[in-house]
Amino acid sequence: MSIPGIHTASVSAPGKINVSLQVGPLRKDGYHSVASVYLAVSLLEDVRATAGQSGITVAVEGGGPLRIPVDGIPLGPDNLVARAAAELAHRTGRRDPAVDLLITKRVPVAGGMGGGSADAAAALMACNSLWGTGLSHTELASIASGLGADVPFALAGGAAVGLGVGDQLTPLDAEASLHWVLVASSIGLSTPGVYRRLDELRAGRNIPEPAAADPRVLEAVRSGNAAALAGVIHNDLQAAALSLAPQLAPVLDRGRELGALAGIVSGSGPTLAFLAGGAAAAADLESALRAEGHNALAVHGPARGAEVTAPADIT
User: Which keywords belong to this entry (predicted)?
Assistant: First the structure.
């Protein structure tokens, strides 16, 4: 049952960059093992949960600094936010999960930054507050792991190593911020499609299972040493993403020419992430890229994980 007088709860959750991503061969279960270093960044999704009349409804609004379009996002029961709310209701024995969920999109859709996972994490926490179910962060993380590999990290935020399919998380203590400039693309890349292309490019090669993240990346992230990180960031999916969207390659080159220490495809793409030497350098790079017509935004990380931005409205 709802707590009397509680009508809404709002939660934010961060998008992420895969600072390093090693991908193993295709497994018999259809997945790939990975060794990834996640960094949550200051580009946040918001989910507002409002007590509804019947069932779980999902709506979405876009915009934000990257002017994210939201046309075509499926809003039915298969939407990850709806699934998150339904699973929380199921786990807590709630028979009347009447809730209206409004997503405010700022992270690129199908952009390789885990925006949908951030929405799911935010929805779990918002419904937990709205319904007064009282689950702990650990209990919410258990539900999150069943929704997708990136959802537990969006709950936790910060920086972490992800093993297995990315869901076996080990937090990293990051001492200082790293500054980045994101360039969003109007191209859509399917994550499964990018993985399939990677398998095609690797056909006939003996690919080892990734056992651990690169220790050089871990040290650079822990210390916030951008110069050291620039030489070791890596994404096994980058070649596949560029093969499917070759128009991204000149943008990567141009970002470096304009002063980025390094550039990388974020996750499965097509969002690009450029590492800058500091906040001022990131601001300058954002301005230069925008002047050339690119949809660019300076961000920093590590950012905090999912958190309540507006406490449950009590009247």
Answer: ATP-binding, Isoprene biosynthesis, Kinase, Nucleotide-binding, Transferase
How many CB atoms sit inside 10 A of residue 78's CB? Answer: 8
105 is catalytic: no
| Domain layout of the chain by residue ranges | 8-172, 178-301
Residue 108 is labelled as binding a ligand = yes
Q: Structure pTM?
A: 0.92
With bands split at pLDDT 50, 70 and 90, how would you rate the model's confidence at 73?
confident
pLDDT attached to residue 311? 63
Measured between alpha carbons, how far is residue 12 from residues 1, 104, 123, 245 in Å?
A: 24, 9, 9, 31
Q: What is the pLDDT of residue 2?
A: 45
Any residues with CB less than 8 A from the CB of 180 and at least 6 apart, and which? 17, 41, 273, 274, 275, 276, 282, 298, 299, 300, 301
Whether residue 119 has pLDDT greater than 50: yes
Which residue of the set 46, 105, 119, 150 is catalytic? 150
CATH number of 8-172: 3.30.230.10
